[in-house]
Amino acid sequence: MRIPISAIAVPVVVLLSYYFVPGLRERPWTLLRIAGAILAVVGYSVVLIARLQLGKSFSVSPQAKELVTQGIYSRIRNPIYVFVDVMIFGLILALQIYWLFAIFPFLLAMHVIQARREARVLEEKFGESYLAYRSHTCF
Q1: pTM of the prediction?
Q2: Is residue 18 situated within a structural domain?
Q3: Is 110 among the domain residues?
Q4: Is the residue at 95 inside a domain?
Q5: Digit-coded pLDDT (tens) for 69-104
Q6: Exposed, middle or buried by CB within 10 Å (0-12, 13-18, 19+), for 90?
């Protein structure tokens, strides 16, 4: 099992931001900022788990290699999109970069559009199996 590059890149970028964005380290750790950090860590952890559970079925463009229905995918159809959004929401709070909330809805919309594209591809390839899977999962 190969560890995705994002498993290393995301924490490195966040740490570099924390250390090199002027004034960020000096800001107090408020309850909101701590909650954001917790959301970011939980979101990142679930994204990593979901990515590893996808294995060779992962692709950037919609492809139907295999219908993954085990692990976190037994409950959530698109855990990577959901928890990337959770992670980014948490990072905005933790790093106090609130202006990013202005573009956050566009990110959510992009994830919804991409999830729908993937659903069409999976339904075309797996038919009733995918529809049955979809009926007992969320997102």
Answers
A1: 0.87
A2: yes
A3: yes
A4: yes
A5: 999 999 999 999 999 999 999 999 999 999 999 999
A6: buried
